[in-house]
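Structure tokens please, single chain.
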Amino acid sequence: MLRIPIFAVEERSKDRFQINSFSLLYSQILARLKKLAAYNGDFKIRNCFLTVFFTHIIISKLFKSSMMKQFSSIVFCISVLLTFAINVNAATLSVAGESANVGDEVVIALTAADLPTEITGFQGTLEWDGSLIELQSVESPLLSTMGFNTNDSEKLGFSWGDFPGTALAGINDVILLTFEVLQEGRANIVFTNSPVVVEVTDGAFAPDVLTLNNGFVEGIDPLPVELSVFDATATGNAVRLDWVTDSEVNFEGFEIQRAIDGVNFNGIAWVNARGSEAQGAGYSHLDDEISMNTSYYYRLKMWDWDGTYEYSEIRNARIVEADQPVIQVYPNPAKNRTAIVFENFSDLTNDPVLTTLHDMNGRTVQFVEHDMQDGINRIELNIAGLPVGLYTITIEHAGYYRTEKLVIGNW
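Here you go.
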């Protein structure tokens, strides 16, 4: 409440007392302006400006001295400049948006930013579609005495009060809501004014201006199958494939696919699903329709009952003749680095092992000269930055010549 001092003064001292009275008045105004500005509320800044403006008009009418009018005009202009120099960004309340599989739980945060210097009250209501998500728990890690109304399965009321106030500078997660995703679809989480008006109050018990951003939970169908293991192993004159699933939901089965270039795959077998959502299963397949000294690449095409499918990662294996040295390229497919691993050849000589990497057009993109050692030998290839595609590795040593395929991917 602004009070205008009125003094009974003698004529000879009128100007001096008018100036003193006017200075006191504007000291009150500017002090209130400073206090209100600290809360960053648009409507507070606007009201303070209007107070200064109308007070200027009143003073101009009450005091006839030209000196007083000039003084009033100067202080008014300063007040206007101070008012508009203040940051008037409104406080913001935002609900996060997250995606989660049907049946999973997800935590959604209600975040506050640019709150007043000290808040004394915080209340509001959130609503959502209860057929898509179900509230499991709610808490306020910063305002521990906040109360929640969870009587309605599709609505949350929250309310908190404290005096003289609590400081929440910067950006804070004020409320954390844990939902269970019931079915596929987007459940919007929105602020509502029924039954509680969304507001934040400050030390002057004035509601702050708020920008409200709604959130959501996006429920998505889980993958039809969760694959935990998939291996391809050369055994005898065949390649054995082994894989394990953690869970299978509405899942039909596996199409086993094979390629000799790591790119062009064809189906070679089908295996029916036999796992469940609660418990997966183990599977195996023996591929004996292969040729010696040839690298084979395998992947699983995993079919759901609704006709959708996903691919597994690619695995490779190679069957070599008994009198041929065993050479492995691992990892393959690869992204940034791969290695050629082999034991020393039976006809060990002092000649170096020459390794050349060719692209699909036959051009040499890398050459490595390696001195043969007893035991396991390892030749590292740095393939970072090479284009995705199929490459050929040639290995030469003392008249021995061998080629291997390498797939470079971006996964």
